[in-house]
Amino acid sequence: MKDLILRNTPDIAGMFELRDIESDNGKNRYEVFCEDEKIVICGDCKISMAMGYYAYLKKYCHVNFSNCGNAEIKVSDAPLFEGKLSKTIIQDKRAYLTYRSFGYSLTFWTWKEWEKEIDFMAMNGINMPLCLVGSEAVWYYTMRDFKYSETGALSYLTGPSFWPWQMMNRLASYYSLTDPKYIESRVELGKKIIDREVSLGMTPIQPGFAGMVPQTFKKLFEKLRMQIMPSWNNFPFTFRLDFQSTVFKKFGSALLEKQRQLFGAYHYYSCDPYIVNKSELKSKGYLWKVGRAIDSLYKDFDPESRWVMMGDCLYEKMVKSVPKERLLIFDLDGTLHSQTEEFWGYDYVLGNGGGSGDRTVLHGNMKTVAENPYLDAPENCVGTGIFYDGILSNPMYFELMFDMLTEDKKINLDEWCRDYALRRYSSADEGYAKAAEILRNTCYNIEGRETGSIICARPCTDLKHTAPFDVIDVQYDNKKLLEAAELLISAEETDSDGRIYDICDITRQVLSNYAHVCYEKAVNGFRNRDQRDFERFSNAFLKVCEELDELLQSRSEMSLAAHLKEAGALALTDKDKQNFELNLLTQITLWGPIGDPLNYDYAWKEWGGLIGTYYAKRWQSFFELLAYRFTKRGKFSTATRKKINDRNEYRGNPFYKNYSDFERKWLQTANPEEPTDADTVEIAKRLIEKYKKNI
Known about the structure:
The protein is of the alpha/beta class. It folds into three domains: about 1-90, Chitobiase, domain 2 (2-Layer Sandwich); about 95-410, Alpha-Beta Barrel (TIM Barrel); about 435-690, N-acetyl-b-d-glucoasminidase (Four Helix Bundle (Hemerythrin (Met), subunit A)). It contains 25 helices and 17 strands. The protein has an eight-stranded parallel sheet, with helices on one face. It has a four-stranded mixed sheet with strand order 1-3-2-4, covered by helices on one side. A three-stranded antiparallel sheet has the order 8-10-9, with no helix packed on it. Helix 12 (about 315-320) links the parallel strand 12 and strand 13.
């Protein structure tokens, strides 16, 4: 704990004294007070002490620690105070991250990012993080023990951006790994992560085994029973061992043992046999047998083990086959418990989830979070969790979610927003408080689905979605959001990096929302044969893209080139460097499979360099086509006959076949410019001034 304080606040580290105290009837608690010119932090465990330390920093040093600007804690003075800060944590388990998080936000992190994130977890009370880094090595070395060659084992393992989906039994051998030294590097990083988490008192959740293996397993065992699993989103079939076979237990036990050798064993194992054949569902007793087989695997390996179900796809019979004391369910988005009779009495963690694809959209519902749904949960709800695909956006909303993880009451959002603004922007200027209030009442006051980006959408004459299941219409008053950006720009200038980040991010959202207006008016101009409106608003749309690209290039975390550099840096060979860069480029565009993706644009990003070289090019060709068709007779539509998730089929007509040619070529040739050192605030100020009369 002393090291955590020294890492984060070296200038005042000597001001803190740490003391142990007893828990409050088994509940974690902390106390913070001043004594003999020292700030005394008392806790029943290291996590409690970390929470007390962060509570002091927030209240008396006005600290905001975030992944979105304010990534460093800058404190040089430790004020003494009267009275006492104290808290008992009513939530026993505080969980964090999903498999998808490791495929989106965390994919290319090094120890530098992880060390900071683990400290952040501790300060916010997280005691059950999901741990996936290094799981590639567990599989690789276990397959080698089962007589697979180096190449054979590597070829089965999917690349970094998609590996979590292989762990979720949905695909395999996609952008396969090529370098065994990369495997070694993952062991080193994964061990550092788990060792640090354990040293701080966390309980890591490790991957389990749900039966998925290579098809080539048939060559290793005679009369092996394997099942072909349904294709997921057009990816090739995968294969799963019969849960009743001896090989299921033999290989599963070998995986768990290898994991223990490399990283240790901490009793919580996550797996969900998500995809099942319809015939299996109809088979009497099948789901019960699946549950028993997986639970028996874990119990025989570790009598203290507990199966963690992530809750994406639950089956009552499977759940009820497991003794209650041996199962923990994560209600990822906090809604499933009400559909399952509170998970039939099994222990569960009430989650807050979303952030599909780690998209760059301001979105959330602060009112619901502030109501603290945990307070109304039954006894078998044993904790809270944050389960987002992406954790690198929406800083204000995430701050509230982390606060509520350990809160024992509902909170007053008026007071919370004012306090947040003071800490986020290092100023009591009223403009900052007003900006925070506007965010709360606009983009963070949305119930339901995320708003898609018109810029990142695959162009169409009748556009309904950017990604599957989003909504394309802006769900609040964009003029009010623009006002928030103006307030941040005009308020007292501070050295807060969070201020600059938010000015960039909110301006991005305002202009993205305005692009939707331009699209609607351009398409209506085309339909009404109004050449003036068509030309005016199609040109305006493309101009917004150009200027957004310039703005976003001024922040490295919003620049494609910077993210490509991170992806390439994780590789140890030129071949893997190209592979990892393609991992990233494919995920944020086609997703896959390359030939006929259903998930195209699922993980869209409004990033500098990506807008200019990819999204804007698609829209330019679209408007050029409409211009060519302008004087032609009859109606014209780019819509395909077949729809998938209410979106056009990827290669459903000649127009989209041409698009696919461009998109796949772009994957091989993308060479975005490096981020600039331009003044973010000045660019945003210019753009706000230019567009405010139109919004």
